[in-house]
Amino acid sequence: MAHVGGRLGLGRLGAQTQAMTAMARRAAGFPVAASQFHGDSSIGAALKSGRIVAGSVLDTVQRSLLEPPGGPRVTFDRDGEIPDLRPGRIAPVMRSSEAFLRARFPNLRRHFVFEYYAWYRANPWRHWDEAGHTPPTSIASSTMPVLGAYDSTSAQVIEQHARWVADAGVGTIALSWWGQGSSDDQITHLIMDIMRAHDIHVTFHLEPYRDDRVNSYASDVLYLLREYGDKRRWDNFLLLERADGSAAPVFKSFRTILPQSIIDCKGVRREVPDYAPDDAWRAQTDALREAIRPDFDHVTLLADSLDMGRTRASGFDGIAIYDSYVRPHTWAAAADTFGGNDLLYSFSLNGGFDGYLPVIPRGECDVPLPFEPPIGTVNWLSDSSRLAAEQASHNRIVESLRETLRLQADLDRFNARSGFFLTYVNTFNEWHEGTSFEPARHRRDLTPAERALGYHNPDDGAWRLNLLQSLLLPITRDR
Asked: How far apart (Å, rounded) are the C-alpha atoms in residues 181 and 79?
């Protein structure tokens, strides 16, 4: 398997790409493994390729990005509540989906998976200090966590995280994984030990830790199965159950099916350094399935792609969409296209995006992405503007849960016919992108120095987690 990429001619990159500095790579949206910057997603890269087929799912997504603010909305009543949410109950489409899913999956909480990042360090600082930030006061996040600039290796921090995950009604985390022997890999056993004490299982989200990581895809997955499954006697490694009672591993990967080149913000076409052809991925996915056949009759491999043909050609079983810019009202088109070709689909429950601003600019093409959902410019010093942003995020959480349940609990669609259900929650603690459900500090508790830096902390820093709990517990708790 180690030589598959060589046979297919991988690694013959243009001199322009080879010579790019880390800063230039980052500005172009290419990954920088040394700093664990994963770059644009497969979808983000495809949108920059300039080669989108009219009428494709990607074309639908691209056109949605050009729409003015609007689309499906959840409205609030005069008391600031969502009218069709009541204590202990959920909206009609959720209630019907809940009954269907609970009847098929005995432990439904395992099918809700928090994206989890264990890359934060405090001695020395790592991740919190990106782009010129100086922790612990100035951090690479638009919002200050209630735990401050914590260290992911702290057992106390992991313990608190595990309690929050369990309290939300979520039964699994997907660890962001950066290769064998990486700093994140080295603390995986500790994370699993603590999560196990809270009945939380663990799976993995494979990151672009090397430009030619396609060559190691099969061996990486086999390593994860061996090290964190077999050696631990499968104590809390996620084996996702299907409706027929069968159970098997599931893995998702980020930045997998890429275009050969993208056009940057200055109109320059650049070769994508970690591009891999479909047959290189297919050689790896086939080899992996052959290797695990004695132990599992299947494994579910998901890519972050909206290119149906290439997903199938690469040997993936389907897609797991990460980006919050792939808006819920476009998901049905993806479910129809992929499901209509016998490919699975998973869409993330999410609250949108609110990325941090760098202190040190990283190049003119590395521009801040706008707040998502689209509501125009947000003035974070204005109470009314800040609350409008919070309401939009609140709406997105409810809307995204409704839509992923609707598309996955419909017997006329492929997922339900296949007995498959999986929803990622994006994210537990990706603080750089402002997607975290992990509690933030209440706005009133920010220090004067933190206030001066303009953090976007809400009045109630735990509102996202509390809302998630109110939505999921009626679905996932034991009865």
From this structure: 52
Identify the weakest region by mean pLDDT among 109-123, 357-371, 387-401. Answer: 357-371
- Is the Cβ–Cβ distance between 74 and 399 less than 8 Å? yes
The enclosing domain of 207 has a CATH number of 3.20.20.80
Instruction: Note the pTM of the prediction, 2 decimals.
Output: 0.91
DSSP 403-469: HHHHHHS-TTSHHHHHT---EEEE-SS-GGGT---SPBPPGGG--HHHHHTT----SSTTHHHHHHH
For residue 86, being part of any structural domain is answered with: no
> Into how many domains does the chain fold?
1
Report DSSP letters for 88-118, one per residue: TB--HHHHHHHHHHHHH-TTGGGGEEEEE--
Measure CA 25 to chain center. Answer: 21
| Token digits of residue 260 | 């050969």
- CA gyration radius, the chain: 21
Q: What are 330-384's pLDDT values in tens digits?
A: 999 999 999 999 999 999 999 999 999 999 877 788 888 899 999 988 999 999 9
Beta bridge partners, 424, equal 113
Pairwise CA distance, residues 1 & 9, whole Å: 14
Structure tokens at 98: 């809940």
pLDDT digits (tens, 9 = 90+) for 38-96: 999 999 999 999 999 999 999 999 999 988 765 444 454 544 444 444 434 455 666 77
Burial class (CB in 10 A: 0-12, 13-18, 19+), 145: buried
Residue 146 vs residue 100, higher pLDDT: 146
User: What is the residue range of 434's domain?
Assistant: 4-66+93-476
Please name the amino acid found at residue 291.
A
The answer to whether residue 79 is domain-embedded is no
CA distances from 263 to 27, 36, 51, 100 (A): 12, 23, 10, 45
Percent pLDDT > 70 in the chain is 90
Give, rounded to a whole angstrom, the gap between the first and last alpha carbons of the chain: 47
Residues ≥6 apart with Cβ < 8 Å to 98: 90, 405, 474, 475
